[in-house]
Structure to design on (692 residues):
């Protein structure tokens, strides 16, 4: 070891015994929780220095990958304008600047203006310039950017630490001046009243759970703000939204499996909210939107994959079904416009969008590619006859379409430019189906450079998530091209616990069936080897957040299968976190994982798979854990403890911890910083695959 190379860090152990259900366990690295403890910070910095020294040989590759990402990205760019009342709204970026700029121009006609990157737009108004707001700060994020219905006022919220607590501010768009109103410690989102005199916002409790809705009268001091709703059940979060029709305000309170909605005439912001329908019913999820004299309602009462219907505005207990439950189709959302409803759904592992007309007929929008992802885009105009859609696939860059309801035609408004010699025809995508241990067929999405064949020699990066019914649909990535062009196969394992195959897919990968998520992933890796899409000794696994739990679990379950594991902000200390109701978001999580405080069965089951609890002396694949000091969703201490225990129990294993000291759950905030972070990750992956 050279004099300049840091020694391998070793966190000191401290006894921390606990007893649950008669089982005594020791958590020797519990002290790493405190982000203000100098010893903790020194340890994290030592780990960063060690990670840098162990990856120093990849510096040139990191620089090359960063250059590739930057070189393929049109740095001066803008989004497709979106119509709202008399304005077209859009965002744009400028070369050399880290953050986006939110803008608008006066509307003339229904067709989006032909604005060009780098060309000044006549009459443009800048709403928010993230670069100006971020000046002098290492981190910046925008929590809300909401224009009042009349177009005269702007509510925006800023954060400079990554902890997701924002300061809410207000701007008069007619003058460009900010009001003196500054409201600290608010959460994402918020809603205006119809006349713009009132703004509703949410606050979080000590566990970072949004639990309060407040009413602020513009121009008054924060001390006069009124608490409109407080959610006392710690399993529930709460938020507020204004309907597309701008007729009603909705307060939605939801847990993982239950929803309650309250509504209020948006023209009467000081009025009392009314509970929708029969109120809160355990295990029943409801979403509501407004159209004319009715509310459209999506719910899962006696309908696992949900059913869609409506209620009269004046009697929300009278439900009239329009789309019945279907075991093969998961209804995900229903968005109401003046004379139609856009229904988002999922069938056979693919997302779908359909238009429900006034007669009750549903017309699905078709696309040519065999695997893709489509969803409703930003559609603030209630009267619109064109529906904005977002579309992508593993080979098609993110695309914006407008679907004309009257002609049933799709109009491509923009496809994200990829500079250089990129040609979608140079890449191929496939759908495979792995057979899980219990016989279940698990979909896998695959993309590779054309010419890479399934001959059993290709290096492969396998990605997975598998929690919260969140689907990882096929998507395009400019950064991923740096892998594909080096011959790497990229695959997504659509494991149980996600929502790709409907509600039952989620149910089979949560609570006391959570291990299906982990075994499915390993079975997908085995399938890729068996059909030749991955060399047996050249597979790296990657996942983040709850997907990081998946990474930690498969490291214990099948360490021999992977040559490397990249865990982004990983939830690897699941048992200890879920046992501690004082930790951020823990109580909310009990309906996802179970409550080990109350149930010995849940405790034993979680202990049997929680990565930190199950570290042994086996030789692990190389592991890179990436985290952020200010992450409020998965504490930095989880990967820090995990790596410390891995190093102690398996000293010959190559494990690294990299902590962003000025970031939150999403990592570094500026786009160039984020590219550098991803270049670091991709260089490590390529090194593990032997293609660096």
């Amino acid at each position: 070891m050279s004099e300049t190379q840091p020694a391998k860090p070793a966190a000191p152990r401290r006894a921390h015994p606990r007893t649950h259900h008669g089982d005594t366990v020791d958590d020797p690295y519990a002290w790493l929780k405190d982000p203000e403890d100098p010893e903790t910070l020194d340890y994290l910095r030592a780990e960063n220095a060690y990670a840098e020294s162990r990856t120093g040989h990849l510096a040139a590759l990191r620089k090359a990958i960063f250059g590739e990402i930057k070189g393929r990205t049109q740095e001066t760019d803008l989004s497709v304008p979106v119509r709202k009342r008399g304005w077209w709204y859009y965002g744009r970026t400028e070369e050399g600047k880290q953050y986006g700029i939110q803008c608008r121009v006066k509307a003339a006609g229904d067709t989006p203006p032909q604005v060009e990157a780098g060309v000044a737009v006549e009459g443009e108004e800048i709403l928010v310039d993230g670069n100006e707001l971020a000046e002098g700060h290492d981190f910046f994020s925008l929590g809300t950017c909401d224009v009042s219905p009349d177009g005269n006022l702007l509510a925006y919220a800023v954060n400079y630490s990554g902890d997701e607590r924002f300061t809410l501010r207000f701007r008069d768009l007619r003058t460009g001046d900010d009001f003196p109103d500054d409201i600290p410690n608010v959460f994402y989102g918020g809603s205006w009243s119809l006349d713009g005199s009132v703004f509703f916002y949410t606050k979080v409790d000590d566990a970072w759970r949004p639990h309060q809705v407040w009413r602020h009268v513009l121009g008054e001091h924060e001390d006069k703000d009124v608490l409109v709703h407080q959610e006392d059940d710690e399993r529930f979060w709460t938020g507020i939204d204004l309907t597309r029709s701008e007729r009603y305000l909705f307060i939605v309170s939801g847990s993982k499996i239950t929803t309650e909605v309250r509504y209020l005439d948006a023209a009467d912001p000081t009025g009392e909210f009314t509970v929708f329908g029969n109120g809160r019913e355990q295990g029943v999820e409801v979403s509501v939107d407004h159209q004319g004299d009715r509310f459209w309602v999506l719910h899962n009462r006696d309908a696992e994959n949900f059913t869609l219907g409506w209620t009269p505005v004046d009697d929300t207990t009278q439900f009239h079904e329009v789309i019945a439950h279907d075991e093969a189709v998961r209804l995900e959302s229903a968005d109401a416009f003046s004379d139609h409803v856009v229904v988002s759904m999922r069938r056979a592992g693919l997302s779908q969008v359909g238009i429900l007309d006034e007669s009750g007929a549903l017309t699905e929008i078709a696309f040519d590619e065999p695997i893709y992802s489509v969803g409703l885009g930003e559609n603030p105009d209630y009267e619109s006859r064109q529906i904005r859609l977002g579309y992508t696939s593993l080979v098609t860059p993110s695309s914006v379409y407008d679907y004309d309801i009257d002609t049933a035609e799709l109009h491509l408004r923009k496809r994200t430019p990829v500079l250089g010699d990129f040609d979608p025809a140079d890449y191929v995508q496939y759908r495979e189906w792995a057979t899980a241990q219990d016989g279940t067929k698990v979909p896998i999405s695959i993309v590779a450079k054309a010419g890479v064949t399934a001959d059993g020699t290709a290096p492969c990066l396998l990605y997975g998530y598998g929690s919260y019914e969140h689907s990882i649909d096929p998507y395009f990535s400019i950064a991923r091209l740096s892998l594909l062009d080096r011959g790497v196969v990229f695959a997504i394992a659509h494991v149980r616990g996600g929502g790709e195959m409907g509600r039952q897919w989620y149910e089979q990968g949560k609570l006391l069936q959570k291990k299906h998520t982990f075994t499915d992933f390993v079975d997908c890796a085995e399938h890729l080897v068996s059909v030749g899409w991955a060399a047996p000794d050249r597979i790296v696994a990657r996942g983040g957040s709850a997907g990081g739990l998946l990474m930690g679990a498969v490291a214990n379950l099948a360490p021999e299968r992977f040559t490397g594991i990249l865990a982004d902000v990983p939830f690897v200390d699941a048992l200890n976190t879920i046992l501690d109701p004082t930790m951020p978001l823990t109580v909310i999580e009990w309906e996802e994982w179970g409550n080990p405080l109350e149930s010995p069965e849940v405790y034993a089951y979680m202990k049997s798979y929680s990565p930190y609890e199950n570290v042994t002396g086996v030789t692990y694949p190389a592991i890179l854990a990436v985290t952020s000091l200010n992450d409020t969703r998965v504490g930095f201490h989880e990967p820090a403890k995990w790596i410390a225990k891995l190093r102690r129990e398996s000293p010959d294993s190559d494990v690294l911890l990299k902590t962003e000291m000025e970031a939150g759950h999403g990592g570094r905030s500026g786009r160039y910083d984020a590219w550098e972070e991803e270049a670091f990750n991709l260089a490590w992956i390529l090194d593990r695959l032997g293609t660096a």
Residues 311 and 319 are 5 Å apart (CA to CA). The chain is about 20% helix and 35% strand. The chain has a mean pLDDT of 94.
